[in-house]
Amino acid sequence: MNRRSAVKMIGGALTGLPAARSLLAHAGEAPARPNIIFIMTDDQRQDAVGAYGNPILKTPNMDAIGGGGMRMTEFFVTNSLCEPSRASFLTGLYSHTHGVLTNGGGPDFSDHPGLRADQQTFVHLLRATGYHTAVVGKWHLQSEPSGFDQWVVFPGQGRYHDPEMIANGARLQMRGHADDVTGDQALAFLQSRPRDKPFCLLYQFKSPHRAWMPAARYAQMFDDVVIPVPRTFEDRLAGRPEALRKAEMAIADMPDFASRGVSPSLPVAERKRLNLEHLVKNYYRVLLSVDDNVGRVLAYLKANGLEANTIVMYTSDNGFFLGEHGLFDKRLMYEPSIRVPMLVRYPAGIPARQVDTTHLTLNIDVAPTLLDLAGVAAPAWMQGRSFAPILRGQRPAWRDAFLYEHFEYPAEHCAGKNRGVRTKKWKLIHFWEQPEEWELYDLERDADETNNLAYDRRHAGVVRELRRRLLELRRESGDVDPPGPPPVAKPCGKGVNTFYTPTPRGPE
Ligand SMILES: [Ca+2]
Q1: How far apart are CA 81 and CA 95, in angstroms?
Q2: What pTM was computed for the model?
């Protein structure tokens, strides 16, 4: 089956095309309530978007979303891992509340069920008020999609080329690149949807997740570009926790590009440099096919008179290290890992050309925000808060700090369990299993997060205040430690990465 016939088949098979009479009856009628297209990518850090200032990658269609509405710079995930963050976007809850703590698998969380079908999401709530709902592309939660009239998703992580999909339970073999196939499914949904209801489409891409396999048309893109080395590329993690040096996230040790000649026998410096080139170029290449497919859907909205009354929101489930601190992957609380794009366009409801650099907004805020914009009251149990007033150009009183948490350990990458609190100026990070370790960064003076002040006596007062705030944020959201001392961290992986500098800890 080629892609074009697949579009027709899925589009027709899932809903049946609306009757011609129904189409005529509603032609030209704009629904009173806004349509919603929620676009999510996988592992896209904030600056991997042209509009956020990327010097190499051009993303005109992503940029057009923010340009037609608001681009937010202080938008973060509260857990930089795929499944927990996705569940937070859907439910408006922290990981410790919705219960999806990890991506599943491994000795500590083999019974992890994913998001339960009976857990309410903003999609369930919209559907209950008359929205026609769908998800296409990457779902990635262990459990089957729930709350959708239609769903066409990749099993698990999905494949980049000729992916399988599951359409309302039925397995299908697709042809083409995953991002184009996802775009086809989004258009099939839009073309075949009932015209008498507002719609909510979750349009979710596999890119730019591992293994970064570009569409053929972009395979040679950036071949002649030299990727700049991040300022902290040679960071040897001096003064940082042992937990960090044990994390198996060193870009020198990435196995992904062995087939391109990056052999473990090469010197460390050379491996690092080659892996950086391959990683960044392919990460950017797959984002080009995302941008194409964002453009296809924006063009459909325009051509069909849906532009004004459709909310288009663009974000990612977590960020990604591209060589900062000599790392790849995510999980840690450093900025490249937790800061993701947030672009929102809604011409009928929010002004264009806005940039918000002020408010700390979070993945848990998205569910209440979309409900608010759709005129549906967010339930009191949601822990996030609607940022619709900010999108409308108001400046409401807002949070001054947020809680971050990461639980998937021991597991792939061996990133220890950690949580922390971030304000505009400070970030306190706590690896809470024994031996406990702390990090403190002054984000105004040390944006690169290399100077750990947690054990500096002059900052003891700041540490004390942030520890109090961390505890407060946890208690407010129902996260309370069980009685007794914290558990001892289990062993994971090979131990300490040898090419980092072991540094004695400062005073407690
Ligand atoms: Ca992810």
Answers
A1: 10
A2: 0.92
Read off the pLDDT of residues 401-435 as tens digits, 9 standing for 90 and up. Answer: 999 999 999 999 999 999 999 999 999 999 999 99
CA distances from 434 to 402, 485, 488 (A): 24, 9, 4
Contact 83, 104 (CB under 8 A): yes
Centre of ligand 1 from the C-alpha of residue 205, in Å: 10
The pLDDT value given to residue 6: 44
Question: What is the pairing mode between strands 150-153 and 132-137?
Answer: parallel
In this structure, which residues have their CB less than 5 angstroms from ion ligand 1? 42-43, 82, 317-318
CB-based contact 20:195 (threshold 8 Å) = no
Task: State the distance from the centre of ligand 1 to the C-alpha of 413, rounded, in angstroms.
Answer: 14
Q: 199-204 and 35-41 as β-strands: parallel, antiparallel, unpaired?
A: parallel
Token pair for residue 421?
Answer: 């609190």
**C-alpha of residue 40 to centroid of ligand 1, in Å:** 10
317 Cα–ligand 1 center, Å: 5
Place of tokens 């891992």: 81
Distance in Å, CA 29 to ligand 1 centroid: 38
Q: Are 77 and 362 in contact, with CB atoms under 8 Å apart?
A: yes
For residue 110, the 8-state DSSP code is: T
Compute the distance from residue 318 Cα to the ligand 1 centre, in Å: 5
Instruction: State how far the Cα of 417 lies from the Cα of 434, in Å rounded to an integer.
Output: 10
Residue 19 has pLDDT above 60, yes or no: no
User: Could you tell me the CATH superfamily of domain 3-17+32-400?
Assistant: Alkaline Phosphatase, subunit A (3.40.720.10)
Give residue 207 CA to ligand 1 midpoint distance, Å.
9
Statement: residue 212 has pLDDT above 70: yes
pLDDT at position 503: 52
Return all residues near 427 (Cβ < 8 A) that are at least 6 apart.
333, 420, 421, 439, 440, 441, 443, 449
Q: C-alpha dihedral over 35, 41, 47, 48, to 10 degrees?
A: -120
* d(CA 507, ligand 1 centre) in Å: 37
Centre of ligand 1 from the C-alpha of residue 426, in Å: 25
For tokens 């021991």, the residue is 410
Rounded to the nearest whole angstrom, what is the distance from the C-alpha of residue 464 to the centroid of ligand 1? 33
**395 and 358 in contact (C-beta within 8 Å)?**
yes
- How many A from CA of 160 to the centre of ligand 1? 15
- The helix or strand, by DSSP H or E, that contains position 343, with its residue range, turns out to be strand 342-345
What is the whole-number distance in angstroms between the Cα of residue 320 and the centre of ligand 1?
Answer: 8
Instruction: State pLDDT tens for residues 152-172.
Output: 999 999 999 999 999 999 999
> Measured between alpha carbons, how far is residue 253 from residues 127, 237, 243 in Å?
46, 16, 17
Report the SS3 class of residue 418.
strand
Whole-angstrom distance between the N-terminal and C-terminal Cα of the chain?
64
Which two structure tokens, joined as six digits, stand for 131?
A: 């929205």
Q: Is 303 exposed, middle or buried (0-12, 13-18, 19+ CB in 10 A)?
A: exposed
User: Whole-angstrom Cα distance, residue 250 to residue 380?
Assistant: 42
pLDDT reported for residue 28: 46
